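User: I want to check something. If I give you two sequences, will you return the structure for each one separately, not as a complex?

Assistant: Yes, each is folded on its own. Here is the first sequence with its structure:
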Amino acid sequence: VHVLEDEIIVRAFVGEHLHLRDVEVRVDRSPPFITVTLSSPYEVRLWFVGVRLFTMTASATMYEEAVG
């Protein structure tokens, strides 16, 4: 699986299950590890204007294994 395909899969999961908008997905492979980092702005709506307060960021690193 190529990095672009990984990002598409992660972005689809985030959109369906986490309901975050404007998510930046970064997939870094450094064998034998893979790291996925998500960043999303946190906004508050004041009247009809969105005010960006900060950017939420989370990452996870796992050992990559061949399956099958």
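And separately, the second sequence with its own structure:
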Amino acid sequence: MIQRIQSVYLLAVLVLQLVALFILKNWIAASGSFSSLSDQPFLYAGIVASAILSFFSLLKFKARKLQFVLNRLNSLIHLVILFVFVVRVFAITDPETTRPFSLFLPALTIGLLYLANKAIKKDEDLIRSVDRIR
């Protein structure tokens, strides 16, 4: 399981999502003040769903096609989360409010999911080429 590079990428995605859930307690609200992540149920539900999807995808290392589809779905969830973050950050009218570094977490996880999908496709192509030789 962990000997494949896509499993390492998926584990990194899962760790980043757990960081987003448990360590980053404050997210920028649209008004410019800090609020708890649990006060924003849409973002919280998206991050929890994405973490569950990542964990399930990590366990499905033998079913490469299913893992590929789950990673695509996870990428779509992260695109929505990133869009919501960008809208909230650019809606802040106070020029002295600092922009959160947490805005980069969904973008980083999308990149890691892309790399995992690329490695899964490479494994699938390798399996197909070996089957063709037999």
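Because they were folded independently, the notes below concern the second chain alone. The longest helix spans residues 104-133. DSSP finds four helices and two strands in the chain.
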